[in-house]
Fold this sequence. Notes:
Largest sheet: 7 strands, mixed
Distance between the termini: 40 Å
Radius of gyration: 14 Å
Strand content: over 45%
Amino acid sequence: xxxxxxxxxxxxxxxxxxxxxxxxxxxxxxxxxxxxxxxxxxxxxxxxxxxxxxxxxxxxxxxxxxxxxxxxxxxxxxxxxxxxxxxxxxxxxxxxxxxxxxxxxxxxxxxxxxxxxxxx
Length: 120
């Protein structure tokens, strides 16, 4: 069983920064892609950013300028650095794992989500 544990959410004023962490426990494959999605109020869940073990990244539309994703030296921990936060970034942020090849194909796991609130 794979478990994704998020941490680092909270409240921040506009223009502030937060760093989210996701730690994956359980069986992990080199082909897995780990990342973040978010669900803003009244909207569908959307891609924030993903990263592969090799460091390949993808970003949701218009987020790359303010957000950065990185992995720890040991594969299985991923960080999302969010800068210049805006009230429109308020929502629940979910860690996500997707199997992208070989024995990992078809695997999808979600964390429980962490709340990010930008106000002030």
